[in-house]
Here is the input.
Amino acid sequence: MASMPPAARLDMPTQSFSRFNPAKAHQPLKCPFDWATALARFVVFGGALGLTAYGGFEMYGVVSVGDVTALEWALLVLFVINFSWISIALTSAIVGIVALLFHRRNLAQQPLVGRTAVVMPTYNEDPARIFSAVAAIIGDFADGPHSENADRFDWFVLSDTTDPDIWVAEERVFVELRRRLGDKTRLYYRHRPKNVARKAGNIADFVIGWGAAYDHMVVLDADSLMTADAIVALAMAMENDPDAGIIQTLPLIINRNTMFARMQQFAARIYGPVIATGLSVWSGRDGNYWGHNAIIRTRAFAESCGLPTFTGNPPFGGHILSHDFVEAALMKRAGWAVYMLPHVTGSYEESPPNLVDLAIRDRRWCQGNMQHIRVIPARGLKLASRQHLVTGIMSYLASPIWMAQLVVGIILVLQSHYARPEYFTREFQLLPAFPVFDAERALQLFGLTMAVLLAPKLFGLFLALGDGQTRRYCGGGLRMTISTVLEVLFSALLAPIMMVIQTGTVMHIAMGTDSGWNPQRRDDGSVPLIAIVRRHLPHMLLGALTLVAGLLIAPSLVAWMSPTIAGLLLAALLSWGSAQRSAGIALRRIGLLQTPEERVRPAVVRRARYWRNELHRTSKSVQCGLGYLHGDQAMRELHMRFLPTPVERSPGDVDVEKAIAGAKLDEAQSIDDAVSWLKSSERAAVLLDRKLMGRLAGLPPTERDIQPRS
Here is the structure.
């Protein structure tokens, strides 16, 4: 059994951010001016500029009743930055709802010509989860109308796993699934000895080693699932557009059970299409890439997307973490189109089950987006690509800017109550300079801000209510509306918590703290209450301090900041309660936060659940990787056959882990000794070396089988 097809190497040169030769870029076959995209951009950015100018003018009116102080100018600037951010979201959503109301796209159906690799990267994930998703997609091809196109696709699980027990379990599940699907199914598995550059390096390794054999590749994530319809639609779109480099879908969230995750699932299903369609329309063919559930032209990717390594240490140096935005920018720089097809259905993903896990994932994403500060000045990038990079950065900088705005506002209130005002300055004037605000205007501006924030969600609700099938499968119009109100209220309470978390994250990264790269938690297991209280204790203390200070300064300040104070005070309770699976299931039983995919599960989702149950037993049969291979000769031989050709080492270049592992194996009297003595990294060194595996196989099973020495 071969774990991989024959090698088909493809050069993937490292790109430069300081040099670029436009003459070497791909020349599009057709490049007419896109009036629709230009109009959409005028509406989005022109409208946002106008709305921001109006909001800034109104804010100036609030603070300019008297002389404007330095702090009031600071408040005005911070407000304008934050208001511009939410204004773009609103104008983009307006474009999105108009496009969804008046424009429907149908993809041309045709037999596929090119070959496509569907790749699933994995890093220390549950093998049953990974392989069940791949098996479900393969089954969707076999049992659906696209069986005639099934031979155009090969399937790859690309492992970067460092845990030796999970590595062996992956191989065991792969062998079992290959046996059950049959040899005609071109399912392959590759384990990379060193996870250099993480996911980006994993994909690059595949492209360099086997990319020449495939015209395109569909990149999945460890929690991705796609129907055969969606994958074939992407492949057809790519073949119909010879200038397309990356085509992205809109993944919907599925399989969520906790209250927190089901709110994310509901929001993505109801509001997501409006937001994604707006982004797709104004981006046009200068779009973005989200790293998964997308199709990529393989050769174009190899020629233009080899990522450089930043000088210096993490968090701003080293390998690029958020590689997807950068790859989209480089692909566009090289002359290829990058765009989204949000109307392609059947693209799914999962989301973190609770606020704590979301914050952990966000910290890694934040670091990756902060690295993009070094990418924005790169030579040759299109303006739209720079805009996408700025958008990613601002999605995290918005929190410290919001917090700074709140702090300045508190200082101004404190100043007005406790600082002795200088009513008459040295310059002669008839009237004193009273430090006052226009309260009525401030209230009107608050209402405008709330309307700008809530409008995209209301657009999504409006469209969903108008779609009969969506409305029925979400529990009816009344339940859908109640679910929206519940999601909005809960999001409002969570917003200040995320503000404080992301502000702390940005500060830690600015001070040079690396986020690392740990596997994401994907199950619905509840987090212990004590762990949640410990995690949110600083947030609750900040809320209590703000409440006490507000009461001492002015009750009106407490009223103004009540949503922020309430969210922080209730941080632990909100985080713990929303992380409970029982709370999410209870809401499902009464028909709240339902989505169509939850009410009637797609066939590929049901198939994935079946395969996960089937493969779970196989995966769990491997409790100790070395012990399992020691006791199963056939699997041990397959494992050694799956290993890559060893790299010839230079004289004096000693693999320390391998040397130590060999010494311990020499002294071991049984497999029990070897398992108990070897550290995780040393076990991995044994698994990577055929000679060490041979010495492992020669050890007696247990100490009881060892004959006494003479």
In short: The radius of gyration is 28 Å. Strands lie at 116-122, 153-159, 187-191, 216-219, 225-226, 244-248, 252-253, 294-297, 337-340, 347-349. The longest strand covers residues 116-122.
